[in-house]
Each structure stands twice: as structure tokens, then as C-alpha cells.
Write a structure and sequence with these properties.
The chain contains 13 helices and no strands. By secondary structure, it is an all-alpha fold. About 25% of the residues are buried.
Length: about 325
């Protein structure tokens, strides 16, 4: 078997194992949260009504049987109907998943380009200004994620009325969530990229290129940017998981119909099939995002061999 194909199969097996493990943990945690019947029926419901609903939802079966069916649904992506809404889970979750994917597809390129720009800015600034820039980035990085969201809504939605404060009303509704998430990513990438650029600038081939009076553009792109991009891709492939968790906060505050917002609502109503679908789709999104970035990594940095990408140590 070709080395690349063999590595792909290994990656698939590992990803599936992680998915099944996380799903199993969710089942036992959800069981420990209590009987979902209490959140689905009014407080004055009779025991007969509760027993009937348990039987309808299959909650009267033994725990081992329910766990087996649960794992089977995870593998086949057939989650049944929502406890709360009574509609097929896939019909509910897929539009929310697509909305979150739109956020990530927009956020990552903007965040990467912004982070690279911040890194180069620090490299060419005087030492004093560079130090002040670094302090400002560290200060912004330490601010809790919900604070900029609330301030942005207050300024741009309430006072200036430039963008809607919540919901999904076309491109305008994407501006604030995308810029806030991309800004957070740009700060993290900028701090890392700035440090890497300073390290690369001390390499012998960079010093030699500077002595040869190479043009500024070629010097920045060929001698500084390309060697540092490898670290950026490694960081971003891991950062995808952090970005997914950040979207939960942003989607909840902006009432954006994404998978994170749907997950919060499903947890509040103890809707296990919907929670299961949200978890599976989020995990799959993370696995395939890392897969895509790892495939692009050798194209950006030819020094990285394909087998090193797949077998990268944690």
C-alpha cells in the first residue's frame, strides 16, 4: 500500500476512534444529567404520561441496549428525531452546521493574513514601538472573548446601527462575528509569527541575503515568510479546535444560527439526539479541517515530508 494511502487509513481509524470515544462519554454524561422527560413534559404531567413518552422515545429500554443503539446511530449518522422538536435531527442540524462552516471559512484566511501582517509590522518597527505593540497584543489576548462581543454590539449595533445585533440577516450579520473571531486569531497568530520571524531573521541565509541587498519584497516573502509559514500551519491545524469552541461563545451572544448555538440549546433541553448530532458534526469538522491543513502543509513548506505530517508528535 502506498505510504500516503496507508497514512490516510491510519488517520481515519484514529479519527473514528476519537469520535466513538467522545460519543460514548457524551452518552454516560447525558445519562447522569437526569431524566429528559422532566424537561419535555409539564410539571403536572401524570406518571402514565411520563411512561408513555419514555416508551415512545425508547428510554424504557435497558441502558446497554440504549448504548448499543446510540453507537450505531453515531456510526451511521442516523440520529432519529429530536426529543424537543419531534423533527429529524439531520434536518435541524445541517443548516446550523453550514452556518458555522461559513464562519470558519471566512475567519481562518482573514486571521492568518492579519496575523502575518502583525508579525511583519513588529519586525520593521523601531524597538520601542515593537515592544509597545507586543504589550498591546498580549493585553488584547488576555481579554475574555465575550467582552469584545458585547462592546461591538453596543457600539456598532446599538449606537451606530451599522450591523444587526443578532440573528442571520445576510452578509451584514456575518461582519461582526467574523471580524471578532478573525481578530482573536490574528492576535494569537501575530504573537507566534512575530517570535518566529525574529528567530528566522538570525539565520545565516537571511543575514547573507540582507548583505546582498535583496529587494525588500523578495527578502520578506522568500527569506522570512516561507520558513515561518510551517509553524503557522502547524499552529492553525491545532487552533481549529479552539476556534470551534470560540464560535460557541460568539454564536450564543449574537444569536447566530450556528452549530455552537444549537448545542447550547440542545443541552439546556436535554435533547440527547440533537446533542449527539452536534457533537459528531463538530468532531468531524475538526478532523477534516486538520486533514485538509495537513495535506496543504507539504505544499507550503516542501521540507515537510508527507509521513512526518501524518505522524507528527503531539
Amino acid at each position: 500500500m502506498h505510504q500516503g494511502m496507508k497514512a490516510a487509513v491510519q488517520r481515519l481509524v484514529v479519527g473514528l476512534s476519537i469520535l466513538l470515544t467522545v460519543s460514548s462519554i457524551l452518552f454516560f454524561v447525558s445519562s447522569a444529567m437526569g431524566d429528559p422527560i422532566h424537561s419535555l413534559l409539564p410539571h403536572d404531567a401524570t406518571e402514565a404520561e411520563k411512561d408513555l413518552l419514555r416508551k415512545t422515545l425508547g428510554l424504557d429500554a435497558p441502558a446497554l441496549v440504549r448504548f448499543g443503539l446510540y453507537i450505531l446511530k453515531t456510526i451511521t449518522l442516523q440520529f432519529g428525531n429530536s426529543y424537543k422538536l419531534g423533527e429529524p435531527v439531520l434536518d435541524i442540524a445541517l443548516p446550523y452546521l453550514w452556518a458555522t462552516m461559513k464562519l470558519i471559512v471566512l475567519v481562518l484566511p482573514i486571521g492568518i493574513v492579519g496575523g502575518i501582517g502583525v508579525g511583519f509590522l513588529g519586525l520593521y518597527l523601531p524597538t520601542k514601538l515593537d515592544s509597545q505593540l507586543n504589550k498591546a497584543l498580549l493585553m488584547l489576548h488576555s481579554i475574555p472573548g465575550f467582552v469584545p462581543c458585547i462592546l461591538a454590539i453596543e457600539l456598532f449595533s446599538v449606537h451606530l446601527k451599522w450591523f444587526p445585533p443578532s440573528g442571520s440577516q445576510g452578509i451584514q450579520s456575518l461582519v461582526l462575528p467574523v471580524l471578532l473571531l478573525a481578530g482573536a486569531e490574528a492576535i494569537k497568530i501575530g504573537l507566534l509569527f512575530r517570535s518566529k520571524l525574529q528567530e528566522v531573521a538570525k539565520e545565516k541565509f537571511v543575514v547573507t541575503a540582507r548583505a546582498k541587498n535583496v529587494s525588500t519584497f523578495r527578502f520578506s516573502v522568500h527569506y522570512l515568510l516561507r520558513p515561518a509559514l510551517s509553524l503557522i500551519f502547524s499552529f492553525v491545524s491545532i487552533q481549529v479546535g479552539v476556534l470551534l469552541s470560540s464560535t460557541i461563545v460568539v454564536e450564543t451572544i449574537f444569536s447566530y444560527p450556528g452549530i455552537g448555538n444549537l448545542t447550547v440549546g440542545a443541552i439546556a433541553s436535554h435533547d440527547l439526539p440533537l446533542i449527539q448530532a452536534c457533537l459528531v458534526f463538530t468532531t468531524l469538522l475538526f478532523i477534516f479541517s486538520r486533514f485538509l491543513l495537513d495535506m496543504l502543509h507539504p505544499l507550503i513548506d516542501p521540507r515537510v515530508k508527507q509521513n512526518q505530517v501524518w505522524e507528527r508528535k503531539e
